[in-house]
Amino acid sequence: MSNIESSVTRLLVATKQLIETLTAWSRRQASETDVSDVYVRLGNEFNIARTCFERANIEMTSLPSFPPVQHQFFFFFFFFIIFFVFLPVTLRVLRLTG
Q1: Which of 76, 78, 55 is nearest to 66 (CA)?
Q2: 6: which of 48, 57, 75, 96 lies 20 to 30 Å off by Cα?
Q3: Residue 36 in contact with residue 22, Cβ under 8 Å?
Q4: How far apart are CA 58 and CA 50, in angstroms?
Q5: Which domain holds residue 17?
């Protein structure tokens, strides 16, 4: 379970970094390339977390892969996945093991 916990922690850190980078971008303190780089990192962390859940035999087939950059769409998709899929599953797993 520590792999799941650490992967979700890294995913949440990457999420925070995306939010901070988007905030900087909105203030013209970060470029679109900066946002794209952070988004790619976030996608990598998302896929790592998904793999950790699958290795722990937690069914993830209904969870789609991380989407490519689609500017307006990816924000909605990403936050939907994190807050309505990963967080509830993680909390359920932690309750079962804790």
Answers
A1: 78
A2: 75
A3: no
A4: 9
A5: 2-97
For residues 14 and 45, is the Cβ–Cβ distance under 8 A?
A: yes
Terminal alpha carbon distance of the chain: 10
Domain count, the chain: 1
Q: Compute the distance between CA of residue 32 and CA of residue 3 in angstroms, rounded to an integer.
A: 32
What does the block give as tokens for 62? Answer: 């209904």
Q: What one-letter code names the amino acid at 34?
A: D
Query: Within its chain, how far is the Cα of 9 from the centroid?
Result: 10
Which residue in 59, 61, 57, 78 sits closest to 3, CA to CA?
A: 57
Q: Quote the pTM value.
A: 0.65
pLDDT at residue 29, rounded to an integer: 95
